[in-house]
C-alpha cells in the first residue's frame, strides 16, 4: 500500500483545509502562498493578492518588533515560535497570533523556504472566557450541591428551628446577597405570616403580610415559585414591605406538606433589580423540598411520639410520658425548694362494671371518668393513665400534705356523681394514694410511696384516700422478704396442706375435705394463710402455689379413695381462673394422680366470680364439662351474684359465708340462711354452712334445710395422716 505522505495532492489538501493561517515564504520574507483560512483572516480575497507581500505589509508595527528575532532564530536554529500581530488588510486592525516558523531546506539547486503557521489568539481568549464562565457556573453548582447535601444531613435529625436557620443562611449566601427568610401561617385566615428564620433586613421583621400583601404571601397563597426582578414593574402583589426594607427584587417558593398543602414559604431578596437564573430558582426550590421532607418527618415523629406517649382511648399521657413529667417536676421542685404531690388513683370495682355492662360500656365509662377527673384537677396538674383503671396525677407547687389531701377530696367528690350508660346509672368511686416529695425523693420513691398509700386506702373501703406513712415501707419490705422466702419454700416443698372435713348434716358422715395451705416459716413461725396467699398474688407466685396445692390434694385424695368415697375441695384464685390453660393443667394433674374428675371440687369465691365473670366464664364452663365439681364460696357476700346464676348454671354447691353462720340462731341471720337455701333449691344445688362452732348453729342450719356443714364443731383442719385415720374410722 502506498504511503499517504508520498501523495502531494493529499498533503496540499490537508494544508488548504487547516483552520489556521498557513503560508510559504522565501528566506527574505516575501509571501509565496497562503491557504484560504489565512486569506480570510487578514481580509484578502485570493492567493494572488497575498503573493509577494512582505512582512512589513502583513504585520502591524507591534508585530514587526519580533522580525529581527525571527531572522536570527531561523538562521541559527531553523525555527521560531512566539507571538506576533497580523494586520487586517481592509480595516488595519491588529490580529494577535501565535506564530510557528520552520525552515524547509530546498533540494539541489532549490532555495530554502520558510513554512509559517499562525493561530488566531482571539478564539482562544473567547474560549478561555467561556471556560471561565463555565468553571464559575460549575463552582456555583458545586457550592449549591454541597449546601443541599449539608441541609439534607441536618434535616435527618435536627429540630425544625435549627434546620430553618441553616436553610435561610444557605439561600442568603448563595443567592440573596445576604437576604433570605422563611415564614408560615400561624393560623388559617391570619393576615400575617410569622417569620421563623431570616437574615439581612428581613431579620428585623417579626411578620410579613399574607396573601397579595407581599411576595412571600403571594407565593404561599398560589403554591408556586414567584420571581420578582424589579418591584418598580411588579403588579401581582403589594411591594411596600420590600421597599421599606430596601429590597428591589426577590423570589419565593412554597414549602408544601405531605398532602400538598402549603406549610410555609422560603424567599431570597436583593437590594438591586436583577433577574434570577433558572438554576437559582431550581436551587431555592430544592431547599424548599428538603424543608418539606423535614416538616413531614417532624410531623410524623410528633404523631408517633404522641402515640407512644399518650393513651389511645382517653388521650391522656401514658406511663412513659408520666415518668418524664415526674422527673421534670422533681427537678423544678429541687431548684425552687418546693414539693411535688403524686396522687395514684384506682377506680373501685371497675371490673364489675366492665364485666356486667361489657367492654364498650366500660370504655365509655372510662372516658366519662377521665372527663370528670381532668375537670377536677388544676390547670398545672398532669393527669396520666397508667393502664386499665389506674391513673396518676402530678401536682406541682403543693405546699403541704393537707393541700394534697384537699386536691384528693375535690377529685373524690367530683367523680362520685353517677353517670348513665344506656340509661343505666353507673356509680363511680376511686381510692387515692398520696405521696409528697422532699429534696431527696426520686421518681421511684414517689411512685412506690403513692402505691403503698393507695393499697391502704383500698383496705379502708371504697372512695377514700390515704397519705403515705413510713410504716407502709415496713409492710412493703415484709412483702418483699416473704416473697423471697415463699419462693424458696415452694421450691423446697416446705409448705403443707391440712384438711377440714365437710359433714353431711343428716348423717354426720364426712363426705369431703377442704384443702388448706399452711406455712411454718423457719424463723417467723406460722405465717397466716391470708398473708402469704396475698403475697403470692402480689408477687407472681399465685400460679405456682395453686398448682402445688392442687397436685398435692389430688394425690392425697387418691390414697383415701382406696378405702372410701371422700371428695377433695381446693380453693382456686382469680389468676388461675383467668389463665386459659388452667383447665388443661387440671386435666394433666387428674391424669397424673389418677383422681376421677367428680372427686375434685374447685371452690371459687363469690367476689372473684362477680368481678371477673366474663373473663373466667369460659374457663369455669370447660372445667364443668370435664366433670369437675364447682362450688361458689362466701355466698351472700357479693353485691350482684344473683343475676349471674341463671346465665351460668354450672355450680353444684353454694357455701354460705361464715359471717351469717356466726350470728345464728338470731332471727335475721336465720332468715338470710333460709333464703340462700331456698335459692339453692331453685337452682338444684347443695348448700354448705361454713364456720360452724356451736350446736345451736348446726341445728339452725339443719332446720333451714342446709345439706352440709363445716367448722370447728365438726372437725378442725388436720394433717393428711390425721385425716386418713378419721376417714378409716368412719368408713368401718
UniProtKB/TrEMBL annotation:
<dbReference type="InterPro" id="IPR052155">
    <property type="entry name" value="Biofilm_reg_signaling"/>
</dbReference>
<feature type="domain" description="EAL">
    <location>
        <begin position="479"/>
        <end position="731"/>
    </location>
</feature>
<dbReference type="Pfam" id="PF13188">
    <property type="entry name" value="PAS_8"/>
</dbReference>
<dbReference type="Pfam" id="PF00563">
    <property type="entry name" value="EAL"/>
</dbReference>
<dbReference type="InterPro" id="IPR043128">
    <property type="entry name" value="Rev_trsase/Diguanyl_cyclase"/>
</dbReference>
<dbReference type="InterPro" id="IPR003018">
    <property type="entry name" value="GAF"/>
</dbReference>
<dbReference type="InterPro" id="IPR035965">
    <property type="entry name" value="PAS-like_dom_sf"/>
</dbReference>
<dbReference type="InterPro" id="IPR001633">
    <property type="entry name" value="EAL_dom"/>
</dbReference>
<dbReference type="InterPro" id="IPR035919">
    <property type="entry name" value="EAL_sf"/>
</dbReference>
<dbReference type="InterPro" id="IPR000014">
    <property type="entry name" value="PAS"/>
</dbReference>
<dbReference type="Pfam" id="PF01590">
    <property type="entry name" value="GAF"/>
</dbReference>
<dbReference type="InterPro" id="IPR000160">
    <property type="entry name" value="GGDEF_dom"/>
</dbReference>
<feature type="domain" description="GGDEF">
    <location>
        <begin position="338"/>
        <end position="470"/>
    </location>
</feature>
<protein>
    <recommendedName>
        <fullName>EAL domain-containing protein</fullName>
    </recommendedName>
</protein>
<dbReference type="Pfam" id="PF00990">
    <property type="entry name" value="GGDEF"/>
</dbReference>
<dbReference type="InterPro" id="IPR029016">
    <property type="entry name" value="GAF-like_dom_sf"/>
</dbReference>
<feature type="domain" description="PAS">
    <location>
        <begin position="7"/>
        <end position="45"/>
    </location>
</feature>
<dbReference type="InterPro" id="IPR029787">
    <property type="entry name" value="Nucleotide_cyclase"/>
</dbReference>
Amino acid at each position: 500500500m502506498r504511503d499517504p505522505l508520498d501523495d502531494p495532492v493529499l498533503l496540499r489538501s490537508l494544508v488548504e483545509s487547516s483552520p489556521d493561517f498557513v503560508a510559504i515564504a522565501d528566506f527574505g520574507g516575501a509571501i509565496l502562498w497562503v491557504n484560504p483560512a489565512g486569506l480570510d483572516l487578514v481580509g484578502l480575497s485570493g492567493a494572488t493578492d497575498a503573493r509577494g507581500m512582505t512582512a512589513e505589509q502583513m504585520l502591524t508595527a507591534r508585530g514587526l518588533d519580533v522580525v529581527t528575532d525571527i531572522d536570527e532564530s531561523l538562521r541559527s536554529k531553523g525555527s521560531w515560535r512566539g507571538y506576533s500581530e497580523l494586520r487586517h488588510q481592509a480595516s488595519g486592525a491588529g490580529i494577535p497570533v501565535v506564530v510557528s516558523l520552520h525552515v524547509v531546506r530546498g533540494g539541489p539547486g532549490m532555495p530554502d523556504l520558510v513554512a509559517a503557521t499562525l493561530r488566531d489568539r482571539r478564539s482562544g481568549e473567547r474560549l478561555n472566557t467561556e471556560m471561565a464562565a463555565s468553571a464559575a457556573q460549575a463552582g456555583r453548582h458545586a457550592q449549591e450541591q454541597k449546601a443541599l447535601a449539608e441541609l439534607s444531613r441536618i434535616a435527618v435529625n435536627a429540630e425544625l428551628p435549627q434546620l430553618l436557620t441553616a436553610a435561610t443562611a444557605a439561600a442568603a449566601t448563595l443567592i440573596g446577597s445576604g437576604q433570605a427568610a422563611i415564614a408560615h401561617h400561624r393560623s388559617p385566615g391570619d393576615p400575617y405570616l410569622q417569620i421563623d428564620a431570616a437574615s439581612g433586613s428581613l431579620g428585623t421583621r417579626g411578620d410579613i403580610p399574607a396573601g397579595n400583601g407581599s411576595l412571600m404571601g403571594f407565593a404561599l397563597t398560589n403554591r408556586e415559585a414567584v420571581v420578582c426582578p424589579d418591584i418598580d414593574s411588579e403588579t401581582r402583589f403589594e411591594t411596600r414591605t420590600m421597599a421599606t426594607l430596601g429590597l428591589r427584587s426577590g423570589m419565593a417558593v412554597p414549602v408544601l406538606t405531605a398532602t400538598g398543602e402549603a406549610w410555609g414559604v422560603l424567599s431570597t431578596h436583593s437590594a438591586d433589580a436583577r433577574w434570577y437564573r433558572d438554576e437559582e430558582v431550581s436551587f431555592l426550590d430544592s431547599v424548599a423540598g428538603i424543608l418539606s421532607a423535614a416538616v413531614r418527618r417532624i410531623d410524623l415523629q410528633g404523631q408517633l411520639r404522641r402515640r407512644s406517649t399518650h393513651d389511645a382511648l382517653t388521650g391522656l399521657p401514658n406511663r412513659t410520658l408520666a415518668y418524664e413529667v415526674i422527673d421534670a417536676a422533681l427537678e423544678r421542685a429541687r431548684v425552687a425548694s418546693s414539693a411535688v404531690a403524686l396522687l395514684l388513683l384506682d377506680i373501685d370495682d371497675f371490673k364489675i362494671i366492665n364485666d356486667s355492662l361489657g367492654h364498650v360500656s366500660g370504655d365509655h365509662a372510662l372516658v366519662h371518668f377521665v372527663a370528670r377527673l381532668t375537670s377536677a384537677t388544676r390547670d398545672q396538674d398532669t393527669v396520666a393513665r397508667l393502664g386499665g383503671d389506674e391513673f396518676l396525677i402530678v401536682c406541682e407547687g403543693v405546699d403541704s400534705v393537707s393541700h394534697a389531701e384537699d386536691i384528693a377530696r375535690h377529685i373524690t367528690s367530683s367523680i362520685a356523681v353517677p353517670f348513665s350508660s344506656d340509661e343505666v346509672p353507673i356509680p363511680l368511686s376511686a381510692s387515692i394514694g398520696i405521696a409528697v416529695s422532699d429534696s431527696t425523693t426520686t421518681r421511684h420513691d414517689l411512685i412506690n410511696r403513692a402505691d403503698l398509700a393507695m393499697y391502704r386506702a383500698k383496705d379502708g373501703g371504697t372512695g377514700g384516700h390515704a397519705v403515705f406513712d413510713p410504716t407502709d415501707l415496713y409492710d412493703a419490705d415484709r412483702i418483699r422478704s416473704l416473697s423471697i422466702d415463699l419462693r424458696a419454700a415452694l421450691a423446697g416443698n416446705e409448705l403443707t396442706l391440712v384438711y377440714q372435713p365437710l359433714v353431711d348434716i343428716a348423717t354426720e358422715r364426712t363426705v369431703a375435705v377442704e384443702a388448706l395451705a399452711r406455712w411454718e416459716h423457719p424463723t417467723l413461725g406460722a405465717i397466716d394463710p391470708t398473708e402469704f396467699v396475698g403475697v403470692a398474688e402480689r408477687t407472681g407466685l399465685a400460679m405456682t402455689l395453686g398448682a402445688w396445692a392442687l397436685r398435692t390434694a389430688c394425690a392425697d385424695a387418691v390414697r383415701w379413695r382406696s378405702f372410701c368415697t371422700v371428695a377433695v375441695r381446693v380453693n382456686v384464685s382469680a389468676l388461675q381462673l383467668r389463665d386459659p390453660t388452667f383447665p388443661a393443667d387440671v386435666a394433666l394433674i387428674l391424669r397424673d394422680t389418677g383422681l376421677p374428675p367428680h372427686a375434685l371440687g374447685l371452690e371459687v369465691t363469690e367476689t372473684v366470680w362477680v368481678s371477673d365473670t366474663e373473663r373466667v366464664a369460659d374457663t369455669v364452663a370447660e372445667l364443668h364439662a370435664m366433670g369437675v365439681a364447682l362450688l361458689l364460696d362466701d355466698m351472700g357476700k357479693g353485691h350482684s351474684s344473683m343475676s349471674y346464676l341463671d346465665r351460668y348454671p354450672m355450680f353444684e354447691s353454694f357455701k354460705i359465708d361464715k359471717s351469717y353462720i356466726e350470728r345464728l340462731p338470731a332471727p335475721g341471720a336465720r332468715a338470710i340462711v333460709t333464703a340462700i337455701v331456698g335459692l339453692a333449691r331453685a337452682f338444684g344445688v347443695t348448700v354448705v354452712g361454713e364456720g360452724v362452732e356451736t350446736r345451736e348453729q348446726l341445728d339452725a342450719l339443719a332446720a333451714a334445710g342446709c345439706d352440709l356443714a363445716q367448722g370447728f364443731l365438726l372437725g378442725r383442719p388436720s394433717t393428711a395422716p390425721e385425716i386418713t385415720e378419721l376417714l378409716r374410722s368412719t368408713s368401718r
